[in-house]
Amino acid sequence: MTTAPVLDADALGRLGEQLGDTDMLCRFIHRYEAMLDQRVERLQRALTARDHEDWMDAVLSLKTSSALAGAEALSRLAAELQEDFASRPPTPVLWPAMERLTEIMECVRRLAAETARQLRLFLQQDPSPA
């Protein structure tokens, strides 16, 4: 799948500059991290239910929120998953085999956990805009 860096500190720096407020940047990162597990679980529920529409909505949410939060690898993985599932015939949706779905979710979970860990490390540094 993806080989992008887990966290793009430059993107977080640019976001901090746009926000102009270190506290606001920290709150945004905390909010993203707090919602990350919920976004991953929504993906799991969509896969379990084989709900293509919910899957596409959940993966788009993960992709865009991750891009904003500087979670480059997770955003790229979500984009790859979005493309893969979007290219499948809509009726009936041809889902990958269950073991492939399990692999996908394990990869998403591992990357989400590493992203959260790196965001916590980022917050321990001085995230002040330059």
UniProtKB/TrEMBL annotation:
Residues 21-122 form the HPt domain. Signal peptide: none annotated. GO terms for biological process: phosphorelay signal transduction system. Gene3D superfamilies: HPT domain. It holds the Pfam family Hpt. PROSITE patterns: HPT. InterPro entries: HPT_dom_sf, Sig_transdc_His_kin_Hpt_dom. This is Hpt domain-containing protein. It comes from Citricoccus muralis.
